[in-house]
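pinging the channel bc i need a second pair of eyes. not urgent but kinda urgent?? the chain im working w is below, pasted from the shared doc
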Amino acid sequence: MTIIASPPISGGRGPIPDGAGDPRTGSRMWTSRLIGALFLAGFLFYGTGTVLVNSVVDGSDFLAGVGAHETTLALGAFLMIATAAIDIGKAVLFFPVLERHGKRTAVAYLATMVFEMALMTVGVLALLMIIPLAGQSDQLGPDAAQALGSLAVDTNETAYQIGQLSLAFGCLFMCALLLRTGLIPKWLAGLGLVGYALHLLGASTELFGVPLSLVLLVPGAIFEVTLAIWLLVKGFTPAVFDDAGTTKAGA
């Protein structure tokens, strides 16, 4: 018996768009939107957590008030450490997308993200030590306890800046690959290159006592928010996403 293919039924609404039934399109948009959502979630969680923590530890004698704001500090620290899981998930989802076009770039990006999250986790754990430290301030003495509390805050700040160095370094390679392959528009990938280069510089200056990171991280933050929105709405470039490319081996 001969099987004759019939044209797709459009239900009177005109022809079905190309790729509407292609499972690869669904996979591309699912991956793109999930990565984009995780970018935004990371901003929301870490930003909110930082505001809550800073509301408790700002000031030269903050340890005396920790007991009354213990829940706020713990919640802020939880949101900050939850960012580690969010960013690792983002990196794991991004890995196969990058690996299709450059395995070494994908591995470098994943490794730097894991290193960044490990350092940020260490910093947040240092912040959590403030809670039991506040309870032991009478035994240790107010001055000694406050000094240890300030050390915990400084440890978190240093771990964060070193982590951001790692993040910016890895993301420079990621953006170079995105620019070369066209997975996202070249203007957007170029913004990422500039943003992460400035972020790398800002984190470096902070480690040497020059407070420039809040200014220099702005272009990188704009890139990440713009990338997230682009991935949520448009997704990765279809032809590039579905093509392993011919430059993978040397990337």
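so Residues 24-241 form one domain. and Residues 120 and 160 are 5 Å apart (CA to CA). — does that match what u expected or am i reading it wrong
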